[in-house]
Structure prediction request, 192 residues.
Amino acid sequence: MIGRTWRAAVVVFSVVLLASCGQLFARERPWDHWSTRTVDELCRYPLDFFTDHLGRRGLEASSPIGKLDQKINGFGGCIVDGPKRSLTSLHVSASLELADDDPPEGLTADYEEREPVQVGADVVRVWSRDDGMGRELRADIDGWTGRLVVHLLVIGEPTGDVALADEHLPAAAEMLVRMTRDLKGPGRQPPR
Prediction:
């Protein structure tokens, strides 16, 4: 009789333990959604865009937080800089990160939100500085945020050049959406 009671207690305990383990492992783990792509792959998108589409020469890519061959995982960043000895120098940062549950607010201070750019089913939000020397584009896709920040640094007299002209915004937005979709990790379900 004690043997049966003992076995029944073990079975009940095992069922409760297995059920609780199922709940433990059912929770979302961020690393399940990490990107396996590299920062170098991330850098190729803005580098190719500004070189091929906009004709900028002498651009170089680097990673602000590691090596180019490092995996993006939950965040990857890339810096693309123009020639250092030029009077006007382009500075671009591109990033891809696993988004928080609450989307971040737009830029403040000297940036103002402009009309978004539609790329297929995706919307790219755009901010600009009034002087034309800075732009930020952001795409939120499947739990990932892709960003492109462009600054034009001018030494001396203004040249009339801008960081990213209005007529190039649709192509830049398309590149950002393609970068985000190609390099992101698996999609996440929205929180409930």
